[in-house]
Amino acid sequence: MALILAIDLGTTNLKAGLIDERGEILSSSSLAIKTISRETGAAEHDPEDLKNLVVALCKKVLENNRKEEVQYIIASTYHFGLMMLDQQRKPLTGMTLLTDTRSQNTFSEFAARFADDDIYQKTGCPFISQYLLPRLYYFSKNKKEDLEKARYFHDSKSFLFEWLTGEWITDISTASATQLFNIHRFQWDQPILSKLNLSVSQFPPSADGTTLMKPLKTEISESLGLKKNIQVVLGAYDGAVLGFGLSGLQQGIGIINIGTSAMVRVPGPFPVFDKNDNKRIQAYALNKNVFLNGGALNNAALPLDWMRNNLFDFDAQDRSLLNITNEPPLISLPYLTGERDSRTGPFASGVFFGIRRSHSRIDFVRSVLEGVAYSMRYIYEALKENNLHIHEIRMGGGGVNIKAWPQIFADVLGVPVCIPAKEETALVGNAMLAFTAGGVFKDFDEASKSMMKRGLTIEPDQKMAKIRDRHYEFHKKLRDALGPLYKEHAALHF
To answer: 222: phi > 0 → left, psi -120 to 50 → alpha, else beta; which?
Structure first.
């Protein structure tokens, strides 16, 4: 039986697993990834550290297992990775992350500079600071010397794929979340790049990650103790493979990933652009036939980790996290690293509103869980307003292990939430994609029927849903009211 060695590179953790054609994970493991910050606002991964971690983790997963049956390797990676390389293809920087906030410092200037370019309609990416275009603009103003030395650029996918195969290629799903990629022509947009004196030739060629594969380098194959002729499947970004693992990318099923960050997306055959001026929907392409329309949050489990590391510890499984009293609620806008919202997001920061003497630690934790769900509903409503209808939510990611969270999401969104039978859904989604690319399954539907294992379905509590509807309306008013103040507050630095 053929096996897949699947790798999932996240912003805080690296995971790997050995998966068979039935979707069984024979072995899996994970490691934390160190974030490097050489200056205020910077957040990067060290490329050599990433390589060493991948090798160490894969060796651990393969140890005492059926490594001779491995036929394919596939890696999913995060969005918003950017690394500059010199003429000799040596790194000038680390790999930037979504938590890198330096581009917020020049975002107002950036927005004015590109105001006349119809970037949203070209790229499907609204005006927010996390994309690579505003990040490159920041470098052009504050790291001009490095940018002038840069001859090539990596994202997280092209970096791993070139290291594994020697081929400098990225996949369409990763490229389409850069704000540099024209999703109608499926190529880098030269007019946009020209404004920063950059050219298409400096960026990796893009390809359909669901079909393209190249041979694994001999030295890496030998290092891992694998047989010759292992194929590396280009793959997709982490949110897309989670969608494979949760739903097989069936239309009408919303995909939510709840981890350090969070996203909700709906698969469809064409890109959808928000008719609202706030441009709440991002249209990401998986390939030329499938688009993942939706939105995302920078801050999901991230503010919980911050709270635990900097304020106080808490029990994430406390049953009282679902309790709501008749008192005015404690409301959280958990936006520690800005948000992906063109109106308030670039300058957003965290807020607790309505603090009273009676509030305990668990109230603060609950307010963050609710704040993330209310922020997700903001995107969910945008999908409905633009005729993207969802009859069920499939939820994956580490956040589902906080037992109260899926129920809170079901109550806030008003739809059933299905969580997977087993963890590490992204690894299984990677394997589904690789097996389909390799011809083991004829298409994704066949792969999902064989490998996908449906778990518990959580229905909305109608009484709680009515209460949360009222709380959400206040949450939205608070968010809108603070929009102008966020920008004013961000200008108070010296």
So the answer is: alpha
Token pair, residue 185, equals: 């022509």
**Of 202, 340, 190, 196, the residue nearest 261 (C-alpha):** 340
Residue 404 lies in a domain: yes
SS3 (DSSP) at 230: coil
Global pTM reads 0.89
Q: How many domains does the chain have?
A: 2
β strands within 259-354, DSSP E: 262-268, 282-285, 291-297, 331-333, 351-353
Which residues lie closer than 8 Å to 426 by C-beta, 6 or more apart?
Answer: 8, 15, 76, 238, 241, 242, 245, 396, 397
Let me know whether 153 and 264 are in one domain: no
DSSP annotation of 190? H
Q: What angle do CA 420, 425, 67 make, to 5 degrees?
A: 130
pLDDT in tens, 98-107: 889 999 899 9
- Judge if 257 and 230 occupy the same domain: no
Q: How far is CA 405 from the centre of its chain?
A: 19
**C-alpha to C-alpha distance for 327 and 320, rounded to whole angstroms:** 15
Helix (H/G/I), strand (E/B), else coil: 203: coil
Alpha carbons 99 and 276: distance in angstroms, whole number: 26
- For 209-250, the pLDDT digits (tens) are 999 999 999 999 999 999 989 999 999 999 999 888 888 888
Question: Count of H helices and E strands in the chain?
Answer: 16, 23
* Pairing state between β 262-268 and 253-258: antiparallel
d(CA 422, CA 22): 13
In terms of domains, do 27 and 136 share one?
Answer: yes
Element (H, E) at 310: helix 301-310
Return d(Cα 204, Cα 149) in angstroms, integer. 17
Rg of the chain on CA atoms, in Å: 22
Contact predicate 398/301, CB 8 Å? yes
